Amino acid sequence: MKIGAPTTKTAPKTLRALTASGITHIVGLPDSLSAPLFDAVAHHPVLRLVTVTREGEAFAIATGLWIGGASPLVVVQNTGMLESGDAIRGTVLRIGVPLPILVTGRGYERMRAADVDPAQTPSPELLARVDVDSVAVLTERTLDAWGIAYRTCEGEDDPVEAILDAIHGAREREQPLALVMARELE
Amino acid sequence: MLTMAQLLAPLHQHRTNEVVITTMSAARPWGRLSGHALDFASVDSAMGHGADLALGIALARPERRVICLNGDGSMLMTLGTLATAVGARATNLIFVVCDNGRFETTGNQPIAGAGRVDYAACARATGFPSVHRFDDARAYAEALPDILRTSGPTLVHAALKPGQEGPIIRGPAEDAPYLRISLSESARSLRAALGV
Fold first, then answer.
1. From CA A75, how far away is CA A97, in angstroms rounded?
2. What are the per-10-residue average pLDDT scores of chain A (186 residues)?
3. In a designed cystine with B69, which of A2, A19, A113, B26 is the match (CB 3.0 to 4.6 A)?
4. Cβ contact (<8 Å) for A56 and B78?
């Protein structure tokens, strides 16, 4: 396979949905789940890719893009979302940027396999368990704490429909809106 | 070393339609001097992310130059942005690093590596095609017109004398107009000035 070429056949469906909804830039840092999307955008004739070195950059860059009239989508893993706390607070929340945020969800499968309820209060013992990835336990609770509306895509949910809902939802609310992708992208 | 006034006055003289993003100790003096509709202070915002915000505007508006008057402490917080700007081919972006070795607006505390970090070398090593370092006001003023025309991304490392700018609190007590309004209002004002 050509290095850097799209690695799945289903990325084009996502790309068509993004361009049809007016997204201009994908800003973020890839993980194993989002890598096919990043690869595909890197070769796209219209969508622009901004790969960052640390996820906090992505939220400030996306804010600048929005100020300049572009329509970005931030794509980060939930670990990177946690890293981005002050960037999110001081840019997209402080300014009120209608930013869709795609958060790929590391650790959700392990959390389900360990029969952990995402709604349960995370104790120090739970966060230290070897069979639980603590980032999944803290993702939705952190979004709640930050006051960021979110939806979770899992199981049989259609990921492309969920991304479109997040884009339109952020615009309608005129606020950031996160989509936690707790399953594979298409 | 330059004073902040020696850094800002030539930029004010030669500035035409560039967007100017300010942070930290440059924000108040630039606001007093300029008052341009394309000014934006990354103040009361996210620590160290003024350069990222400037990069985003530059990518959205490739026809227009974007200048970020960044603090040295702020630049250190997001050094990775240098690589991001190069990767994104932000040819219209100019970072000016105001190197006074201090967190001036919070009380002149020393920053990490004060006086020993070569920001111009960092930019050069990251792949910036246009890099400059100035310790002398006259050399800077003479070079600035060409710097503003050169394809970037560009980084200007300006060695500054420490000043005495105190904390900035957005609101009516500030004399620079862009610091009297909220960050959100300021962002929407800049969008309007850009025709968004």
1. 15
2. 43 91 98 94 96 98 98 98 97 98 95 87 92 94 96 93 97 97 84
3. B26
4. yes
**CB contact, 8 Å: B96 with chain A?**
no
Give chain A positions within 8 Å (CB) of B40: 67
- Per the structure, the count of domains in chain B is 1
CB contact under 8 A, B59 and A50: yes
- Domain of A112 in residue numbering reads as 107-148
Let me know whether A59 and A138 are in one domain: no
The per-residue pLDDT for range B138-158, each reduced to its tens digit, is 999 999 999 999 999 999 999
Q: Is residue A87 located within the same domain as residue A125?
A: no
CA dihedral angle for residue B64, residue B65, residue B69, residue B72, rounded to 10 degrees: 130
Question: What pTM, to 2 d.p., does this model score?
Answer: 0.95
Q: CA-CA distance, B176 to A60, in Å (whole number)?
A: 23
What does the pLDDT read at residue B57? Answer: 98
Q: Do A89 and A132 fall within a single domain?
A: no
Euclidean distance between CA atoms A50 and A58, whole angstroms: 8
Is this prediction's ipTM beyond 0.85?
Answer: yes
Residue A172 located in a structural domain: no
Q: Strands A100-104 and A72-77, how do they pair?
A: parallel
Residue of A nearest to B44 (CA): A90
Please list every residue in chain B whose beta carbon sits closer than 8 Å to the beta carbon of residue A54: 78, 80
